[in-house]
Amino acid sequence: MQGLMLHCGGQSATLADLKAVPLPARTETYSPVAHHELIKKVIAITMDVLPVKLVAQGFGLSHEGQRMFSHLRFKNGMGNREMGLCLGVVNSYDKRLPVKIAAGANVFVCDNLALTGDITYMRKHTGDVWNIIEDAIRDHIGSSEDAFLQVLVDVKQMKRIKLTNDKAYQILGLLYGNRMLTNPMMTIARREWDEPSHKAFEPRNAWCLYNAITAALKLARPEVILERHRDLHGFITGRHFKYIA
């Protein structure tokens, strides 16, 4: 499983690897949140709040295990065979990143992400952090189904927008010019547009270009990958895109 897997600055890991990373000591101003316990809590609350089933999970570690990135994929009860609910989860022990959760959809055929809406930033690791986190997770998961449904609407609209090669290259150039894509990402995105790795993305429309770009975003730094996916979604579904397309 790829999803949020880390081609830049991190290594794939298992839940056991997450548990094996030593937990920092608690102090008066710092309350650590264990990587593996956070993942278990997110999964448990998600399956308690929503009628979903966990079908896949992927983990990554960077900075010698001090930073954790996870992609959780759930099968939903809506009968959609193309996409499923997904959650991106971030945590750190080095006090550089707060706990983050992003909700959206996962494309089954290629394991790309479609993230829309807000990314929940939990408070820093201070005080009674677990009560704060549990409440925040429950609130975020409660709205994650809406985020998933919005992605389905957006995908339907993207499929209606036909693109010529010239238009696709223009859009890639805009993303590059606005620093949303790097040189290596541009190479991957153009290749995936010109010669899609998956037959499902052969039609020349905005949805296929979107997936070419999300394939390239797997090169993004782990710290910003959730934001990059969200920003791309906002760009592709925004008024400016509809105007230039």
Quick gist of this model?
This protein is an alpha+beta fold and 245 residues long.
> Taking strands numbered 1, 2, ... along the chain, how are they ordered across the largest sheet?
1-2-3-4-5-6
Backbone shape: globular
Poorly predicted parts: 1-7
Termini Cα gap: 32 Å
**Helix content range of the residues, please?**
40-55%
Task: Give average pLDDT, whole number.
Answer: 85
Number of strands: 6
Strand content: 15-25%
SSE sequence, one letter per element = EHHEEEEEHHHHHH
Total domain units: 2
Major sheet size, sense and barrel closure: 6 strands, antiparallel
The helix/strand class is alpha+beta
Q: What is the overall number of helices?
A: 8
Rg (CA only): 18 Å
Could you walk me through the main structural features you see in this protein, from its secondary elements to its overall organization?
- The chain is of the alpha+beta class and 245 residues long.
- It has helices spanning 15-20, 35-49, 129-160, 165-177, 183-194, 206-216, 225-236, 239-244, and strands at residues 11-13, 53-62, 67-75, 83-92, 100-107, 112-121.
- The chain has a 6-stranded antiparallel beta sheet with strand order 1-2-3-4-5-6.
- Strand 5 and strand 6 (112-121) form a beta hairpin.
- The longest helix is centred in the middle third of the chain and has 32 residues, at 129-160.
- The radius of gyration is 18 Å and the shape is globular.
